[in-house]
Amino acid sequence: MATPVIEPWRMIFTAVEGFGKTTLGANCPGAAMLMARGETGYRTLLAHNLAPAIPAVELDSWQHTLDTVADLTADPQGIKTIVFDALSGFERQCNVAVCDRDFKGDFGDKGFSSFQRGYDIAAMEWHKLLAALDTLRLKQGVNVMILGHIQIKPFKNPDGADFDRFVPDVHHKLWSPTFKWADAVLFGRYLTVIDKEQKGKGKGIGGTERVVYTQRRDAFDAKNRFAMPEAIDVPNDPSLMFSTIFAHITR
Questions:
Q1: Where are the domains of the chain?
Q2: What is the pLDDT of residue 203?
């Protein structure tokens, strides 16, 4: 019987806005923050003493991102986890690189957006990053955490009435291979509180309890390969969320 090999993990964490994604990422073990241009959340948190000081760099292009991963593969500089903030920003980098290279910078109907050709090519280009991250993981033992924003979109239900669901704020052709690649895709939201005294209709009145889901439901994508419980109650202090989640990972 083959001896089990414990490899560095690949995790994606998506959540509703304000949940504490960036703080969670910053508290990963030995973390370094790789920020897409325009993602200022970590710096704001750090300035207000709401996140630990860790190595952080803003990456301004697709090539810059690939080069940074290559540099860390050659020398991880003591980093144990790289945190990407956020998925949609790195998708934009990839799309711009493909558009400039293959469509002369034209994002319109005669260029990148024509018959979805740009998204097809970008999805193939994206595999370069996923492959590079696997090389980094296996060569240097570095974990990968990707943070992601979400949006609400209608879902065409083949089994009945359509409904809205939470989906990552990226194109589905990029999300599909990324979802398959990850060892765990976790979704965080606040526990919804419904007031049913509104003329027969429920009305959301908020909720402060944070819950992280590890398995898919009709309302969102999630999965894990670690035998984690379906739902995990996490502290309202985002700095404690990662340690709480990691305690449930069976190895």
A1: 10-246
A2: 53
Q: Evaluate if pTM is beyond 0.70.
A: yes
Rama region for 88: left / alpha / beta (φ>0; ψ in -120 to 50; rest): alpha
Per run of 10 residues, the mean pLDDT along the chain (length 251 residues) is 71 95 96 95 96 97 98 98 98 98 96 94 98 98 97 81 87 96 97 61 64 94 95 92 89 53
**DSSP summary character for residue 237:** S
| 10-246: CATH, from 1.20.1530, 3.40.630, 3.40.50, 3.30.70 | 3.40.50
Q: What is the pLDDT of residue 238?
A: 87
Q: What is the pLDDT of residue 159?
A: 75
Say what the alpha-carbon torsion angle 213, 23, 54, 126 is, to the nearest 10 degrees.
50
Q: Judge contact between 18 and 236, C-beta under 8 A.
A: no
Name every residue whose Cβ is closer than 8 Å to that of residue 187 and which is 6 or more positions away in sequence: 14, 15, 150, 166, 212, 213, 220, 221, 222
Distances (CA, A) of 228 to 57, 232, 236, 248, 250: 32, 9, 20, 6, 7
Rounded Cα–Cα distance for residues 93 and 99 (Å): 10
